[in-house]
Amino acid sequence: MDKTGTETEAESEERSDVRAPDKIRTCLGCRVSKDKKELVRLVISPDGIVVIDYKGTLPGRGAYVCPTESCIREAFSRKQISRVFKVSQIEGVEEFLYRLRKLVLDRISSLLSLARKAGKVVDGREAVEKGMEKGTINLLVFAEDLSPLSFKEMKDTCLKRGIGYYTYLSKDEMGGLIGKGERGGLGIADASFSSLLGKEFERFKSLGSVGSGGGKNG
Known about the structure:
Blueprint: H1 9-17, E1 24-26, E2 33-35, E3 40-44, E4 50-53, E5 62-65, H2 69-77, H3 80-85, H4 93-117, E6 121-123, H5 125-134, E7 139-142, H6 148-161, E8 164-167, H7 171-177, E9 185-188, H8 191-206, E10 213-214
Parallel strand pairs: 7-8
Antiparallel strand pairs: 1-2, 3-4, 3-5, 6-9, 7-9, 8-10
Helix pairs in contact: 1-8, 4-8
């Protein structure tokens, strides 16, 4: 909560993520039963299109799959999605993976934007380094085009201090997220936002595409 005792958006989202387990669902790929919050929900639209219901809010009977490349490929190879929804044709697995990866990236960008608005994003190398020294930064997001030397220095510091880290977007795009110029990295100074972002970055890695990650969250 903030100083006024009001629950922040990140705290509200995290609380909903860790509430008492809901109904168990089975992955169409690996056939393992899990809490449905760990899976990605699929629904069929009125015009017969299989839709990825990433927020889990769309009406209709759903089916579930682990957000991993291996499970999704298995579900497609065994035609499980078309069988469950009784449709003869669906998009190819590559198109499906592309759509899901984009939804995860959109979620990451949304969380970073929310963190910025909440004043939980630290930017600028000097400020980030000070935050890491003070222990106020829980997660560090590097730009994909950061120089090898700068990346190594920041990565080594993260590993030394047990700070999670991931790579995401270019320096120009990172700056655009916070309405500023190029930024080589953004520090997240909030445990709730860091946890939510870490979850999405790990999903993106499991879908077969992310630069790197490490520390306590990777």
